[in-house]
User: What shape does this take?
Amino acid sequence: MDYFADYRSKLRTAEEAVKVVKSGDWVDYGTNVGFPKLLDAALAKRKDELTDVKIRGNLIFEPIQAVECDPLREHFLYNSWHMSGYERSLCDKGLCNFIPMIFRNLAPYYFHFLTVNVAMVCATPMDKHGFFNLSCGSGIAKAILDKADVVIIEVNENLPKVSGGYSQCISVTDVDMIVEGEHGPLPEVPDMPVSPAEEAVAEHILEIIPSGATLQLGIGSMPNALGKMIAKSDLGDFGMHTELCSDAYVDLAEAGKLTNKKKTFLKDVGVTGMAFGTKRTYDYVDENPCVTFMPLEFVNAPEVIARNDNMVSINNCIAVDLFGQVSAESAGTRQISGTGGQLDYLTGAAMSKGGKAFICLTSTYTDKDGTVHSRIRPTFQGDIVTDPRSQAYYLVTEYGRVNLVGKTTWERAQDIISLAHPDFREELIAQAEELGIWRRSNKR
Assistant: This one.
């Protein structure tokens, strides 16, 4: 078959391609650097011709024109599976709705329940075998494309070409339209500054991580801080099994600490489903045979995660209550992030032989008025529970580390209050007493 003739027959301008979208359609944009910038801009230009076009995406870092052009949401209705900082700002303005999910279930959601009238995502230029590489969004892109009535590929010449186990590519024969055009540098998600409190949290975790562990490092400054600290430590021979490859793993690789040699499942390769960070991350995954991208329904399956002995999962949260419930995605009812894969890895690491699952937080935060608040609460008041108390494992703040497994409610209250800032402990004890989960013999 002449793949390049097929390619040429499917070439369209962005304006021509988006004519396929009809009022009332469900349109999918994919994830992170797979965001189809040219097609989105062309779709936005059709605003006055369309109504009730529902768009899904997640972890998109640059302006979405179909949202920005329609502040009353009369034409386009944007929805996100997992909030980036940009999408959070849209949500705060009432321009984005959240779709609850856990990442291991995302592909089955599409397969069994969802409609995709048009899918438009970015991919690398086609290779000589007729395949486009789905790059940093490989973990979820193929499931969306497989369900779509119409598939449009926007070719982004700057995307890294990633190695994969399966589903990291799509054949030109399965594509309906192809759009070319110039793209700028990939959006970068830089390292966040690390506070002394976050460094202290990382130190408490580092104390009980063994050499040879397989690591899942979540999104945020604390996991990045830990990656840098491990890179400078005497530990080594770590493996990678994670939904997201970020700069933290590049730090480990450059220090010679990420060898994947001690993994007990998929040895010698780091496994991931997505990648984003700075240019260092994109360069690291580009044609790297030691990093394999696989679908998140596989990567994030707890039974797959658990096949790695000494699996260590490290994730952030926003708040914890005295019962051990964890909120990692909202502040009250304000959507901040999403469940993503946190619960997947909390479960999988707990199932692993020698595994450990850490949920991290600083004990306090300061609001815009300068008032200091405790992140440890007596109970939640509208906050979304990401991890149920029945699956709480290690909790860590700058004041220490506790393991809640098998603990009674009063033991949990005692341990969790020990992690709180000293200024809030007496108040939390009084609140625990009111809730009936404080023993008089408990340590104060």
About this structure: The two ends are 75 Å apart (CA to CA). The domain at 3-179 is CATH 3.40.1080.10 (Glutaconate Coenzyme A-transferase).
